């Protein structure tokens, strides 16, 4: 159990305490830092952006013959890191997800199998592409359940697209998923919005499927406010993406990470121009961040495993932490997720969230009625079949950001607030839990 006597076991330099003991004679810890602090734009990016603004050449195609735009240079940086052959920079990862489906010929009303646990942008992209979402269960490690994927592919033989979302950087068994897609002749696509830097079997995520998308939205590993990239080794997908994004007439000649001109033959006349291009300004702030990815990944992972050790040793009877799938050779843990165990009733779960919030640490419950990661809130693309495994997981799955700009000591505060909040709720609940998980009042 979480032991009350350990409540002050972690040192903390940025802590405020209550004027009177909060419980068991122990003062409470408060987090005093902003949990939504994004990674700053490096000084080099600020300078590049300022120089661009002085020229006014923010449009990626406003360059002289023989020049490479800032966006083209950024695309080169990205493929140098991920190992893909082709890359098209876009205005958002949502646009990239939609184009994954459009460029692989999703028919109007075509079914797309995807995770039941992901961000609402994924089913939104399916709807945007004119598709119909079919959801696969997600397990307590927060990844796609391979057995349910096989079941859904069997039940929906007309479904020829599978879009796997690596939610919060957690990767399912991609070898098994690829094998299932191959058995059912389905196209595998990867949503890598949360998995920049994550490697599966030694290769960057996004190589098992035929194409993938990464994000540069503010709370991702690279921050341009909004932005995304479609990555692939398939020349036709790359060419179609560039044209859909806005490479009309012969503007594909101003790209450097797309296939040769003959692959574009007839495409500008056949495909619409959705104007989804990334601007030079966004690319300017991204480029310096690509240089520091490995350094930041090391820092995130070091802090994460330290936090895991503290929480598991102190609160292991009250929570479990998702386990990385074997085959994930390099994780990127820029946030913390944990599942409250069944000895916490729904009322206790809410009390825990309230305790954390009241002590400066907003902890999100994925299954909250207003959370955009809860499939019950996707009225635009509703689930038509029950998803009991996912629903059960979401009802006790918690999410906490780990801002890079915090100091190491701030994560001691985080561990303290989580542990103390669990302890308080457990003590105040005065509940015994029977083997079947039902709570009964403690008469002792």
Comma- or semicolon-separated keywords:
single chain; alpha/beta; seven-stranded mixed sheet; four-stranded antiparallel sheet; disordered C terminus
In short:
By secondary structure, the chain is α/β, with parallel strands linked by helices. It has helices at about 45-55, 70-80, 95-100, 120-130, 145-155, 175-185, 235-245, 265-270, 280-290, 295-315, 345-360, 390-395, 410-430; strands at about 85-90, 110-115, 130-135, 160-165, 185-190, 200, 205, 210-215, 230, 320, 330, 335-340, 365, 395-400, 430-435, 440. The chain is about 35% helix and about 15% strand.
What does this structure look like?
The structure is a single chain. The chain is an alpha/beta fold and 444 residues long. Helix content is 35%, strand content 14%. It contains 13 helices and 16 strands. The protein has helices at 43-55, 70-82, 93-102, 121-128, 146-155, 174-183, 235-245, 267-270, 280-291, 293-315, 346-358, 388-394, 408-429; strands at 86-90, 111-115, 132-136, 161-165, 187-191, 199-200, 203-204, 211-215, 228-232, 319-320, 328-330, 335-340, 364-365, 397-401, 431-433, 439-441. Strands 1-9-8-5-4-2-3 form a seven-stranded mixed sheet, sandwiched between helices. A hairpin with a 2-residue loop joins β6 and β7 (203-204).
